[in-house]
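User: My collaborator sent over this chain with a note saying "see what the structure looks like." That's all I know about it. Can you take a look?
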Amino acid sequence: MSNSLLLRNVRPLEGNCVDVLVTDGVVSRVGPALEAPDVPVVEGHNGILLPGLVDAHTHLDKTHWGQPWHRHSAGPTIQERIADERRVRQRLGYSPAVQSASQVRQSIAMGTTHIRTHVDIDTEIGLANLEGVLATRERFQDALTMQIVAFPQSGLLVRPGTQELMTEAIRLGADLVGGIDPSSMDRDPVRHLDSIFAIADQQGTGVDIHLHEPGMLGAFALELIAERTAALGMRGRVTVSHAFCLGMVDDAYLDHLTGLLVDNRIAIMTHGPGHIEFPPVRCLHEAGVTLCCGSDGIRDSWGPYGNADMLERAMLLGFRSGFRCDEDLELVLDIITRGGAEVMETEDYGITPGCRADLTVVAGETRVEAIMSRTPRIAVIKGGRLVAANGNCLI
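Assistant: Without extra context I'll predict from the sequence alone. Here is the result:
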């Protein structure tokens, strides 16, 4: 498949209508009425040109996307949902490779060009989920950039042997070390965090930690995370996902925590949850905290929500944040593009000459209208190749 093309009649970030010439997978020229004989042409229909959308937090190994409807029965606590998921997984026997591929194709159709996925690692399933998602990453390597986080969903210390499996997961191809609720899950926040940071330090990877713990409990974990980030020289390589506690502490303590995040370049992922307080997006952005967003679980045993549309996720994050002004909603669009790309350490990301041609064309008069309307993506281009058109994945 050619990785050169001429994208006609698009409006970069809702600007003037231009053509975009892509040569060898890189944006080479942007301007009106470009000529490029013998290069395939993709019609943009006056759509808005965006850099490819970034889903910086999902769980490809758990999705039921494309399968018959699952009637949900999980309890309200995280531990109950984990236990229910284990039962459902055993009963349904879905293939992680098949299911992750199903969600990836949906994500591509929705304009996503980059995904960071957490993959369960524990002593019951071993590395089976990782192997399935690794197969999907290889299969779609020319259509999607994927990072994999080895994720101890069921705990690290409470399931002896998980720590060794996490190290093996990195050796097999996972890109980052995950963690989860070091106090409430493992009952030993210091040892939990010491363990995952030690793996990351030894293997030369970044860290992405699920932190659902509320209030002061979560805030204490954030302080411990910042300590280890600084001590190991991992500034810019640590993400805290969810971080509900940032929406629960008083203003003075929030200022203290925000300072730790900025000083240690710790990123925050929030997906705009519907049931709990969450990080104050505008406040953190103005302070200089790197923010990203993700789909989280999509049609899995935890819940029926999600469709892999990051424009819909942007709308939900804006809605939950109380955003009404266009400039605020443009910030949310920035979070699902540039913010996610920064967290994934994506080089040459953007829509100007010299950038890698990972592009999405959406319909709408403005970027905010595109978020609200969420019409099928006109075109999705990855590395100069057309991978989706009119809402359909072509891979």
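A starting point for your reply to your collaborator: The chain has eleven helices and 16 strands.
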